[in-house]
Design brief:
It contains twelve helices and eleven strands. The chain has 301 residues and is an alpha/beta fold. A seven-stranded parallel β-sheet has the order 7-6-5-8-9-10-11, with helices on both faces. Strands 1-2-3-4 form a four-stranded parallel β-sheet. Helix 4 links the parallel strand 3 and strand 4. Helix 5 packs across helix 8. The protein is globular, with a radius of gyration of 21 Å.
């Protein structure tokens, strides 16, 4: 069974893969049975050009970058990996919260320049702690559930919103509108769907508390980036920590990049050697199941 991984892998990840192939993706897909998909969109054209394709295995959770209708039309199964990256994403969300609140990027650059003991005191006045603040989690999947007790242990009051009330012992449920008005830090953990795209728009941002912080390790298209830049630039919001963007790779003229209150990373919240090792376990098992004619783990379609 031929498996193609469409990903610019590090040497460490390559060492975990039995075979690497330097030939072009398009040529290799002609006789591939399985595509291991990371972020580059799997379009209808990709699927139609792979007549032997039987499975698109998402390395991660979100399948919004896969043309599901085209896969279904070609009788290609799609599966994902819930839980494999939840620890990494939860830790990155926490890191971004701390980075924005403690202005670590500002302090790092200042210290490297030899001016760390002469900071702008107005910037330090904008620093703060997680403890004593209310953190609102938008979406309550695996990463949010892992993050909630950590935040509570740090002294935060944690609330969440989701499609249904999960009855958490750690945090209280709120409708989205109430969460926006109540939270000092809002962390996005929702998938990209027609119902969630653009959910953090100008109106939602205006509902947020003055001085609040927005964290996004979910999907970039949940947020109106122009409206977010305006809300931060005006001083309504304290800042933001963003791992994902509406357009990826993000363009250098993104309006958020000129704001020192914004901490950014290039969609790598999920990306750790531990996540990749867990992902390969699932991928190999689904390849075995596909070949044996058994039911797939975490099948989406």
């Amino acid at each position: 069974m031929k498996v193609v991984l469409q990903y610019r892998a590090s040497d460490g990840f390559r060492a975990q893969i039995d075979e690497t192939d330097e030939a072009t993706f398009k040529r290799e897909m002609r006789d591939a049975a399985v595509l291991l998909h990371v972020l580059k969109p799997v379009t209808a054209a990709v699927i139609e050009a792979a007549p032997k394709l039987r499975l698109v295995q998402k390395i991660g959770v979100g399948v919004n970058t896969i043309d599901l209708d085209a896969a279904k039309a070609q009788d290609v199964a799609v599966a994902n990996m819930p839980g494999t990256n939840s620890a990494a994403v939860a830790e990155m969300a926490l890191a971004l919260m701390l980075g924005v609140l403690r202005r670590t990027a500002y302090c790092d650059a200042l210290t490297r320049a030899g001016a760390g003991w002469r900071p702008d005191l107005a910037v330090l006045d904008q620093a703060g702690e997680i403890g004593g603040r209310t953190v609102g989690l938008v979406g309550f999947g695996a990463s949010a559930r892992r993050l909630a007790p950590v935040l509570a242990a740090l002294g935060a009051r944690v609330i969440y919103t989701a499609r249904s009330n999960h009855g958490s012992e750690v945090c209280a449920f709120r409708p989205l509108e109430a969460l926006l008005e109540e939270a000092d830090i809002i962390s996005l953990h929702a998938p990209s769907t027609p119902a969630t795209r653009g959910m953090i728009d100008e109106a939602a941002l205006s509902r947020m508390r003055k001085g609040a912080v927005l964290i996004n390790t979910a999907r970039g298209d949940l947020v109106d980036e122009v409206a977010l830049a305006a809300a931060i630039g005006s001083g309504h919001l304290r800042g933001a920590g963003l791992d994902v963007f509406a357009r990826e790779p993000a363009a250098t003229d993104n309006p958020l990049f000129g704001l020192p209150q914004v901490l950014v990373s290039p969609h790598i919240a999920w990306l750790t050697p531990e996540t990749l090792a867990r992902s390969l376990v699932v991928a190999r098992e689904n390849c075995r199941r596909l070949e044996a004619g058994e039911g797939l783990l975490h099948r989406v379609i």
